[in-house]
Amino acid sequence: MDFLALIKLNPSLRKQPPSTKVAPSVSTNLPSHLGHSLVKAALNVGDLRRAQQLFDNIPQPDPTTCYTLISALTIYGFPHEALRLYASLRERKIKPQNTVFLAVAKASGASGDLLRVKEIHDDSIRCGMISDVFLGNALIHAYGKCRCTEGARRVFDDLVVKDVVSWTSMSSCYVNCGLPRQGLAVFREMGRNGVKPNSVTVSSILPACSELKDLKSGRAIHGYAMRHGMMENVYVCSALVSMYARCLSVKPARLVFDLMPHRDVVSWNGLLSAYFTNKEYERGLALFSQMRSKGVQQRLAELSKAIMAKSKDDIKYGTAQARLSEDEAVRVAYVNGTPLEGGMISHSQPVDMFESARNVANNGAPKDSNADNNQSQMQKSHRPEEASSAEFTRDG
Predict the structure, then answer these.
(1) Which of 83, 168, 192, 316 has minimal CB crowding within 10 Å?
(2) Do residues 252 and 381 make contact, with C-beta atoms less than 8 angstroms apart?
(3) Is residue 124 part of a domain?
(4) What is each CA distance from 113 to 15, 29, 143, 166, 216, in whole angstroms?
(5) Residue 341, domain member (yes or no)
(6) Pairwise CA distance, residues 88 & 53, whole Å
(7) Which of 31-35, 82-86, 121-125 has the lowest mean pLDDT?
(8) What is the phi-psi region of residue 130: left when phi exceeds 0, alpha when psi lies from -120 to 50, beta otherwise?
(9) Model pTM greater than 0.90?
(10) What does the DSSP 8-state code read for residue 371?
């Protein structure tokens, strides 16, 4: 097994910083090939300290060894150690290769240190490596982690060849930094350049449609996802549910939800929020009961916020709220010991309204009568806007 895969399978090793591990004596002036083997062996047993000492005793470490140790430190959760290792290479006048730049670019992004990201970017330009698409993609991602869209765009524009990862990284950088219009603009430009979005692209651009309430673009992307076999991808489907929910289009949100082979918390909460936002409280509580019956680890705060945001004069609101036990209402209002704004649910409504709906609550949540027919409805009546990749280029 590759040592990086072994590290990922043994997360307990990440808890101990490399400086606290005790290493036996290490030979000095190790030949490059032998040093690489010893470094890998140390990493395979999780001994970062020994791996670092071995590395320090290789006069001329090869690029593979440098990449190996820098990547391991980042994966273990010590990106600052990885950056210090890179600094030591520069002090030793060891010229890094593109693989080393790739590893250290990922480390700089994981560190969240914008100054370090800029240093790596500048170094890669001086060494003539910036045209490498893999390095460019890593730098775009690193700038995005630091919420620096200007730096990411500079790298993106300097790339001679852009692959689907380049376009996806740039568009998601804009979206994650609160610039959904710019993200959609990059997405459309991607279509104009004949680059086909993949499932990662689709799931990362749909939040832009959600933020802008751009149902037309969201439906076009939905149609693209259906035609390209992406509807079994949980991230794509969850993003679609959330997009339709944010656009107050509950029926297609439910249709996508019911066709999902696997559902994550995002998809459950997206549909739940849609029901309560549209004052479909009975359906919302039915869905919540379904969540509990399936043992979903709900973020109960989502239900609390959805209920508490509704009109306090709505009798259906009080009826829906009463379906929660008093103990559950407390758990909804207090998540991880932190009270939500507005206080506990049981205190946010008049007691008589809470009690008057108790008999209705004891009968259990009603079944969503439309749920059973949703699969056939999706296939027969629901038609997301059919759009080719080129049609994403249209504005608006």
Answers:
(1) 192
(2) no
(3) no
(4) 21, 33, 9, 21, 38
(5) yes
(6) 13
(7) 31-35
(8) alpha
(9) no
(10) G
Q: Is there a contact between 182 and 174 (Cβ–Cβ < 8 Å)?
A: yes
Q: Which DSSP symbol is given to 45? A: T
The count of structural domains within the chain is: 2
72 pairs with which residues across the strands? none
pLDDT tens digits for range 85-114: 999 998 888 888 889 999 999 999 999 999
Two structure tokens written together for 7: 């590290």
The Cα 163–Cα 146 span in angstroms is 22
Coil, helix or strand for 388?
coil
Q: Residue 151 burial by CB count (10 A; 0-12/13-18/19+): exposed, middle or buried?
A: buried
Concatenated DSSP letters for 72-132?
HHHHHT-HHHHHHHHHHHHHTTPPP-HHHHHHHHHHHHHHT-HHHHHHHHHHHHHTT-TT-
- CA nearest 171: which of 160, 157, 161, 185? 185
E strands along the chain, which residues?
A: 334-335, 338-339
pLDDT grade, residue 316 (50/70/90)? low
Of 94, 117, 144, the position where a domain reaches its end is 94
Task: With respect to residue 155, please indicate whether it lies within any of the assigned structural domains.
Answer: no
Residue 306 domain-assigned? yes
Lowest-confidence range among 105-109, 214-218, 285-289, 363-367?
A: 363-367
- Out of 53, 72, 94, a domain closes at 94
The contacts found for 84-89 with CB under 8 angstroms, 24 or more apart, are: 85/52, 85/55, 86/120, 88/56, 89/61
**What proportion of the chain, given as a percentage, has pLDDT over 70?**
67
Distance between CA atoms of residues 247 and 339, nearest Å: 29
Contacts (Cβ under 8 Å, ≥6 apart) of 87: none
| Geometric angle at alpha carbon 317, from 315 and 318, rounded to 5° | 65
Which residue range is the domain that position 274 belongs to? 253-396
Tell me the two tokens of residue 390: 């080129």
Asked if 157 contacts 132 with a C-beta cutoff of 8 angstroms, the reply is: no
Both structure tokens of 145: 């982690």
Angle formed by the axes of helices 164-176 and 149-158, nearest 10°: 160
Q: Which two tokens stand for residue 285?
A: 């509580």
Partners of 338 in beta bridges: 335
